[in-house]
Write a structure and sequence with these properties.
This protein has about 375 residues and is of the alpha/beta class. It has 13 helices and twelve strands. It has a seven-stranded mixed β-sheet with strand order 1-9-8-5-4-2-3, sandwiched between helices. Strand 6 and strand 7 form a beta hairpin.
């Protein structure tokens, strides 16, 4: 019987277990020196002055909005094609959510998408590096700066990507990273904010620690968003081996590209010239409209090949439909893109046999499900 091929896997060694053991043995397991060490190493990796570790990649976004003073009456622009937390954090602050479209080939937001939706009440834009592909930062940074709008980059999926010669993590005023189990580094749950704004970094550190400036001296309405020492210990080991996993993922993506390059049934993931290295959080080709994507997914599942369909756009999520009255065709570009894309297995340790199995099965099923 063929083994199941998961869409993504966390890659651990004995080093992570040993790092956690040493923390537990020390007797200090809540936020402490390991968290500080992880923050320093992470900031150095992406080239930022500040890195602030938190418990996950949702609270990093939420605390950023809180630190910027975003609240009722303020508008925050978010792409509809994203994970739900990018939109949820806006509502946590009582701000007004403004959804926007994306580029149909990269699934990322462009200036022209933002220009259609930004108003004089817009206080922040949250962009998303979909599937590990960076947005085109330079024009969007300029667009936001000219209007006095805070630019927050949801870079949860793009750790290790390189934009115009630099690691993703300093292009926007703030970058938010996630260390969930399927990310390029994982701490189980975990997140990190990077910024070159020292005052903002100070505010974020206060907010994550119950609003404290000094023990039991609470100057802000803060949160318990602290990372644990055990998470940080795992993160340090994972960060040290990140380049090895990135190399593995790039090799997998390259082999898929060779496999699919001659097919007219699906398009390869687009990599624009401003991207030097894709982070390959997911490998997401797009089927031709004549292919029944959902039938392909069912076929692959029967063959033991796990896939994902990325994230359903925010505006079709039941909560948002009920609360705001969105209709499916309110964002036709995002819906059309989501209807045809697929996430194929992209673990860095996939074997050539497994890659061939995924590729062959995908092409065979696509050909059998043309309508």
């Amino acid at each position: 019987m063929l083994n199941k091929i998961p869409v993504a896997t966390a890659v651990f060694t004995d080093a992570e277990a040993e790092a956690v053991y040493q923390v537990v043995k020390s007797g200090w397991i809540t936020m402490g020196s390991k968290v500080a060490e992880f923050e320093h190493a992470f900031a150095e990796y992406v080239g930022a002055r500040n890195a602030i570790a938190m418990f996950n990649g949702t609270v990093t976004l939420h605390s950023t909005l809180a630190a910027l003073g975003i609240g009722p009456g303020d508008e925050v622009v978010v792409p509809t094609l994203t994970y739900i937390s990018t939109a949820n954090v806006v509502l946590y602050q009582g701000a007004n959510l403004r959804l926007c479209e994306c580029d149909p080939t990269t699934y990322n937001v462009r200036v022209e998408d933002l220009d259609k939706i930004v108003t004089e009440r817009t206080k922040a834009i949250i962009t998303v590096d979909m599937n590990g592909l960076p947005i085109d930062y330079d024009p969007i940074v300029q667009f936001a700066a000219e209007r006095g709008i805070a630019l927050i980059a949801d870079s949860a999926e793009s750790l290790g990507a390189i934009y115009r010669g630099k690691q993703v993590g300093t292009q926007a005023m703030v970058h938010s990273f996630s260390f969930f189990g399927n990310k390029n580094i994982t701490t189980g749950e975990g997140g990190m904010i990077t910024t070159n704004n020292d005052q903002l970094a100070k505010e974020l550190r206060i907010l994550r620690n119950q609003g404290q400036e000094g023990r039991y001296n609470h100057t802000h309405l803060g949160y318990n968003y602290r990372m644990t020492e055990m998470q940080a210990a795992i993160g340090l080991v994972q960060l040290a081996s990140l380049e090895t996993r990135l190399t593995g993922k790039r090799l997998v993506a390259m082999k898929y590209n060779r496999f699919f390059s001659d097919s007219n049934l699906l398009s390869l993931p687009k990599i624009p010239p401003y991207v030097d290295n894709h982070a390959w959080y997911m490998y997401a080709p797009e089927f031709h409209p004549s292919v029944n994507r959902d039938a392909v997914v069912r076929d692959l599942e029967l063959l033991g090949i796990e896939t994902r369909l990325s994230f359903p756009p925010v505006h079709i999520q039941p909560y948002y439909v009920e609360r705001f009255g969105y209709r499916r065709n309110d964002f036709p570009v995002s819906i059309e893109a989501w209807n045809h894309l697929i996430n194929l297995p992209i673990s860095p340790n996939l074997t050539d046999d497994e890659i061939n199995r995924v590729g062959s099965a995908t092409l065979h099923s696509a050909a059998a499900n043309v309508h």
